[in-house]
Design a protein that fits this description.
The structure is a homodimer. Chain A has about 425 residues and is an alpha/beta fold. Chain A has two domains: about 1-45 and about 295-405, Alpha-Beta Complex (Aspartate Aminotransferase, domain 1), CATH 3.90.1150.10; about 70-285, Type I PLP-dependent aspartate aminotransferase-like (Major domain) (Aspartate Aminotransferase, domain 2, 3-Layer(aba) Sandwich). Helices cover about 45% and strands about 15% of the residues of chain A. Chain A has helices spanning about 1-5, 10-15, 20-25, 45-60, 65, 75-85, 100-115, 130-135, 155-165, 185-195, 220-225, 255-270, 275-285, 290-315, 345-355, 385-410, 415, and strands at about 35, 95-100, 120-125, 140-145, 145-150, 150, 170, 200-205, 235-240, 250-255, 320, 330-335, 355-360, 360, 375-380. The relative contact order of chain A is 0.15. Chains A and B meet through α1, α4, α5, α7 and α8 of A and α1, α4, α5, α7 and α8 of B.
């Protein structure tokens, strides 16, 4: 059966599954607190709003709703999405949009139509793992651009563009996963200049941009680009997963005409179109004008949960973790004190099982998968009580690691001189 | 903007859209009869059944239904699909199945995980265009296996396996699109022997298998393989598009464990999972035990429409077209009389506009896209009256072509000696 097994390409046969998914398999265990997932708060999922839309769609059900639809998406949802983007300051018409099966599909299709196998794509130091996986499966080589608390370090980008010559760059400028970073306006403008100068196509991924707590982030790159003298090539996508519900699997892609044409051809071959009834339900939801008040609710709730986790971490893991209080999004990105050991991902799984608190280590978001002195802690999904208790357990566990390290340092002869 | 345009890979930038989709854009014109699409009859789409399921799902809506779900699919739909396959004689458990966004996605994901860019895949002479497109986009080279009225000519396969060494073969054994062919049992068994002997992974695509008119086709390859002494590697997929509704975009993939793992990883990166509510709706529909009576209705209705089109063609295009009366599926595959001209696809579009009847020329289904002496005529979507009138218009148009050809033959000096 060796040859039969060999039927799977090594690219896929040797790929590892998502470490976060492996963690989530443990999240349901008794007495486990998970700060690992990027799932919305179940209490904030709009069941009633969806229920009303379902009834509306049911009442208006026509033969057309059951037939094959356009690859680009249902006209109602393209119109509603264009209106939403316009309201946010973008220039976008329904005809320019493609409805995708979540923004994940937009990432995947763009990777396929833009990047030749073996070619490079420039990405931030820490990234959403499923984006990196999509790029890897497209055969792309990942080119790291240094990243700090303000997102991609654009000042250090130009030498990379000169030496590595990537034609495509992936960036999450708003409340990035995992870093929570927001790219300041000056960096955005400089990134657009560089993209135009070096003919780099930007993939701007914006799933979290609406989840700001204090003030809205600067305008998206695609919007700033529309005002530029020498425009760059920018594709922009956003998702309804974080602001309505992940289960619908609906996202929106805005792309220049040649890329849009290619993505439509790719999507025809990938799945013909996304589910029509999900699209009609979401159109009905958006049509009821409930999104704006719902966003207010989400912002307030996530801001409160973010503060709860940050306060609890300061109380229970003071000195062991260093982090900025999030200004939006779903994550605290915390740096481990420098004397704490750099553990491989599996050790953080074991840590989670031992201390009953799941966290995702930085390795999961890095290009190399090598151990990193960072943890991603999600405040979105757990209850406030669980956030506090999770921080307490995490603090206790980290203290254990710290004391073990210090006793190791004392007792391991090779390390006494280090 | 040249470089910007160059951002799209030539594989996609130079790809042509589906000629069938181009035809369908004309199908809505006044007084046009379309025998071109593969769309189900709108009168046979189960609006009431879906409406009841929508109400059921609405009533039972939980937070879980709105949250991220498993990449493999909603448990309810995997269970219901396993029960359905088991009822049809296959050995399949829910754990072995993946719910895909239509069987199109299964084709695409299998192409991606199985075929290295540049590698070959063996396919029938005439194929579903979107499958060929998915293989091309995966970078595959298409290897033609001669095909006749009984599907893939398995006797002529072995020399191809010896010389071309494909590791993957795509086949639609039941009421294939466009040929309508059903592969006899003996060919199925021989194909499995060859696949086992030459370590070829079979992709068995079965969207039409339940739409038989007289008697059910032989068992699927995957089922026969389960009884074989030396089993081959077979992946099997079917779709709910033709038997319930295309809009749901739901299909089922059954694959050996190593391929299943790879497809799940690929799907995580492609779209995370298919829409949950579409899955819950379909589960509710299947749970109501209405599928069996619905299939009876579909079989009778499509059998009657097939007979209507076949009779009308014999009346109006006698001698100009040669075809077998379909035993299932949605298509008449008709050979043009040998003296009729081999026209490129665009000429058939013009023919359609002139005679107000759209048909798809064989070129659309061929590997080379070269003109073929075949037409695919769909009886699924038009009303019986349109089928009759469409056949009449087609016959008149073909007679026009025939008389033009014969007058050309008389007047063109170069051809008088041919």
């Amino acid at each position: 059966m060796n040859t039969a097994r060999g039927a799977v390409r090594p690219l896929y046969a040797q790929a590892s599954g998502s470490p976060i998914r492996a963690m989530l398999a443990l999240a349901g265990r008794e007495d486990m607190i998970s700060l690992a997932g990027g799932h919305p708060d179940p209490a904030l999922l709009p069941i009633e709003w969806l229920r009303e839309s379902l009834l509306e769609v049911t009442g208006k059900l026509q033969g057309r709703s059951l037939q094959y639809g356009a690859t680009e998406g249902q006209p109602e949802l393209r119109e509603a999405s264009a209106a939403l983007l316009t309201q946010r300051g973008l220039t976008a018409t329904a005809a320019e949009l493609i409805i995708t099966t979540g923004s994940q599909q937009a990432i995947d299709l763009l990777a396929r139509v833009l990047i030749e196998p073996g070619e490079g794509i420039a990405v931030e130091s820490f990234n959403y793992p499923a984006a990196l996986q999509a790029f890897r499966f497209a055969g792309a080589r990942l080119i790291e651009v240094p990243t700090d608390a303000q997102g991609m370090d654009v000042d250090r980008l130009e030498p990379i563009l000169l030496t590595e010559r990537p034609r495509v760059l992936y960036v999450v400028p708003n409340f990035a996963n995992p870093t929570g970073a927001v790219m300041p306006l000056a960096r955005r403008l400089r990134l657009l200049e560089l993209a135009a100068q070096y003919d780099v196509t930007l993939i701007e991924d914006d799933p979290y941009g609406e989840l700001w707590f204090g003030e809205a982030p600067p305008p998206p790159l695609v919007q700033l680009n529309q005002r530029a003298d020498s425009p760059a090539q920018v594709t922009y996508m956003t998702s309804y997963s974080k602001v309505v519900a992940p289960a619908l699997r609906l996202g929106v892609l805005l792309a220049p005409a040649d890329i849009q044409r290619a993505v439509v051809l790719a999507k025809q071959a990938a799945d013909v179109h996304s589910g029509s009834l999900e699209q009609l339900k979401l159109s009905a939801m958006l049509g009821s004008n409930c999104l704006t008040p719902h966003l207010d609710v989400l912002r307030k709730a996530y801001a409160a949960k973010s503060a709860t986790l940050a306060d609890a971490l300061r109380r229970h893991a003071d000195g062991l973790l260093k982090f900025d209080t999030p200004q939006g999004g779903m994550f605290v990105w915390a740096r481990l004190r420098s004397d704490l050991p750099l553990l491989p991902t599996q050790d953080w799984v074991d840590f989670g099982l031992q201390h009953k608190v799941l966290v995702v280590p930085g390795a999961a978001f890095s290009i190399s998968n090598a151990a990193q002195p960072w943890l991603r802690l999600s405040f979105a999904n757990p209850s406030p009580a669980s956030l506090q208790q999770g921080a307490e357990r995490l603090g206790r566990g980290l203290q254990g690691l710290a004391s073990r390290t210090s006793s190791n340092t004392k007792t391991t002869p090779e390390r006494t001189s280090a």
